[in-house]
């Protein structure tokens, strides 16, 4: 038995040698261009002094894992828990100075990320999450020089931040490239501070563009398989000309390490954000004043739009720029300021990137026909809307409920009792849903009791008979679906397409 092991080892070594020889011969027959781009070392050497490490410190409250459990006097566990909590608190069992026995002392935490210099005066770009809530921020240059930095401004919606510091010697800065010119398969180079190991260079290709991974309202990430790990956040993604075409922001990984799914904010977005943060210390985004939703295939069929495209206007702000321009719920925006709008994300991004106060042409489809509206953009405010509670109504005799079925819905006219029961604002007009057939298309589209149908096929309705009549007519006309404008109790609108077959 023992004699077989060395023989097996020799066989494995020989197999390994044969594989190595075969691999070497294969590589020798492959053109150099197919094994990766030349000049990555030259690019890294050219730009690495512009890439910095970001060191932050933050004071946080120490958490002791909860209060001491309440135990009956004389319990056999009382002494054990008392000693345990005293040891956790330190000698004396109390806070420093003995003023609040049982409290844990605040402590300093440190974190490291990446960034890059875009101006030799000391302007640095990084991710907001790298410096969020930091008490102190330091920039560490490639040669190890550590300099305290100040925060210029942040944009949480794109997770970007701009810092500045006073240079002690001449700096190297990098320029932004055009991320719109990237093609799938283009080579890119990432430089950063993975796992706090210091400046590291990795290379890969552009795997995808315009990725929406539900991180924010303006998602349009570059996806790359260049190795990006924890600590790379805020670092630059370069093209082969040494231009920054993205800011490495996040990874998708079950292990915390790179599995080839890294995402970078495109330079087109970054450059605009950096410019505004330097000028104003904040973002000043354009505002159209509409609520929008996806144009599904069913909605497109109901509106006679082929192919399905654009952003469906579900609501118009009474004080927004779209209102005086004549844009209405049910309009589909297909072009904004000369740029095609394929989906709601496209519209959100292009409006946000447009200068406040600019007059733009907005092309809409209304009842199957294209129209152009001129809109002067306002400024988007980030303040959350304050919802006011409905006043409590006086008790009145209950009204008799009369319902009618259509589209798998139990429908009724809006009455005072129903407004009270479902908390429907007085400004909401239409027909209320009091029940939904669980097996119907309406249930699948998440209609529920308390929703109010405002329009059917872009015509206002006031009673259940109106709805049934219009649905019957659509069936006769051979339509496959009907478009409903639905409101919740607060008056927020959305469009829902239901099958009429």
Explain briefly what this protein structure is:
The protein is an alpha+beta fold and 501 residues long. It has helices at 4-29, 40-47, 78-89, 128-131, 267-280, 297-302, 344-353, 416-422, 441-444, 464-476; strands at 51-60, 107-119, 123-127, 136-140, 146-155, 160-164, 187-192, 200-211, 221-224, 236-238, 244-251, 262-266, 286-287, 290-294, 311-316, 332-336, 339-340, 359-366, 369-376, 378-379, 403-406, 409-413, 431-436, 452-456, 459-460, 481-487, 493-499.
Q: What attributes characterize this protein structure?
A:
single chain, 501 residues, alpha+beta, seven-stranded antiparallel sheet, six-stranded antiparallel β-barrel, 10 helices, 32% strand, elongated
What does this structure look like?
This protein has 501 residues and is α+β, with helices and mostly antiparallel strands. It has ten helices and 27 strands. The strands form five sheets. Strands 21, 22, 23, 24, 25, 26 and 27 form a seven-stranded antiparallel beta sheet that branches. The protein has a six-stranded antiparallel barrel with strand order 1-2-3-6-5-4. The longest helix has 26 residues. The protein is elongated. The chain starts with a helix and ends with a strand.
Rg is 31 Å
Percent in helix: 10-25%
Strand content: 25-35%
Could you tell me the number of beta strands? 27
The major β-sheet equals:
7 strands, antiparallel
The coarse silhouette is elongated
Q: How confident overall, as mean pLDDT?
A: 81
Which residue ranges are poorly predicted, with pLDDT under 50 across at least 5 consecutive positions? 1-28, 89-102, 383-398
> How does the helix and strand content classify structurally?
alpha+beta
Distance between the termini: 76 Å
């Amino acid at each position: 038995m023992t004699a077989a092991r060395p023989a097996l080892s020799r066989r494995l070594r020989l197999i390994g040698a044969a594989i190595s020889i075969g691999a070497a011969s294969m590589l020798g027959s492959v053109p150099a261009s197919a094994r990766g781009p030349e000049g990555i070392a030259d690019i890294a050497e050219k730009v690495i002094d512009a890439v910095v490490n970001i060191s932050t410190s933050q004071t946080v409250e120490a958490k002791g894992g909860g209060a001491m459990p309440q135990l009956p006097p004389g319990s056999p566990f009382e002494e054990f828990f008392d000693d345990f909590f005293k040891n956790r608190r330190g000698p004396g069992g109390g806070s420093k100075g003995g003023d609040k026995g049982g409290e844990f002392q605040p402590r300093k935490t440190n974190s490291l990320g990446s960034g890059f210099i875009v101006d030799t005066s000391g302007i640095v770009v990084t991710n907001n999450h790298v410096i969020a809530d930091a008490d102190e921020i330091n920039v560490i240059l490639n040669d190890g020089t550590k300099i305290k930095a100040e925060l210029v401004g942040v944009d949480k919606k794109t997770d970007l931040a701009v810092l500045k510091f006073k240079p002690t010697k001449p700096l190297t800065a990098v320029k932004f490239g055009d991320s719109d010119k990237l093609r799938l398969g283009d080579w890119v180079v990432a430089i950063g501070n993975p796992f706090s190991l210091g400046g590291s260079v990795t290379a890969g290709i552009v795997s995808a563009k315009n990725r929406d991974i539900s991180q924010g309202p303006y998602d349009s990430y570059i996806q790359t398989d260049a190795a990006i790990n924890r600590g790379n956040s805020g670092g630059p993604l370069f093209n082969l000309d040494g231009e920054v075409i993205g800011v490495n922001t996040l990874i998708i990984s079950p292990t915390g390490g790179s599995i080839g799914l890294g995402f970078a904010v495109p330079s087109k977005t970054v450059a605009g954000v950096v410019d505004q943060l330097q000028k104003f210390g904040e973002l000043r985004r354009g505002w159209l004043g509409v609520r929008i939703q996806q144009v599904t295939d069913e909605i497109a069929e109901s509106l006679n739009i082929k192919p399905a495209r654009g952003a469906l206007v579900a609501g118009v702000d009474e004080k927004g720029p779209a209102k005086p321009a004549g844009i209405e719920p049910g309009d589909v925006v297909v072009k904004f300021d000369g740029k095609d709008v394929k989906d709601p994300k496209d519209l959100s991004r292009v409006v946000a990137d447009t200068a406040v106060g600019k007059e733009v042409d907005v092309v809409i489809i209304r009842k199957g026909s294209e129209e152009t509206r001129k809109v002067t953009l306002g400024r988007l405010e980030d303040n959350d809307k304050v919802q006011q509670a409905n006043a409590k109504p006086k008790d009145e005799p209950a009204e008799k409920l009369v319902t009618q079925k259509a589209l798998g819905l139990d429908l009724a006219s809006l009455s005072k009792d129903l407004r009270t029961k479902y908390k429907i604002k007085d400004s909401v007009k239409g027909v209320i849903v009091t029940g939904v057939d669980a097996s119907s298309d309406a249930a699948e589209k998440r209609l529920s009791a308390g929703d109010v149908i405002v329009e059917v096929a872009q015509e206002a309705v006031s009673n259940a008979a109106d709805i049934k009549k219009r649905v019957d007519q659509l069936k006769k006309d051979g339509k496959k679906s009907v478009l409903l404008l639905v409101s919740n109790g607060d008056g927020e609108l959305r469009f829902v397409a239901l099958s009429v077959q």
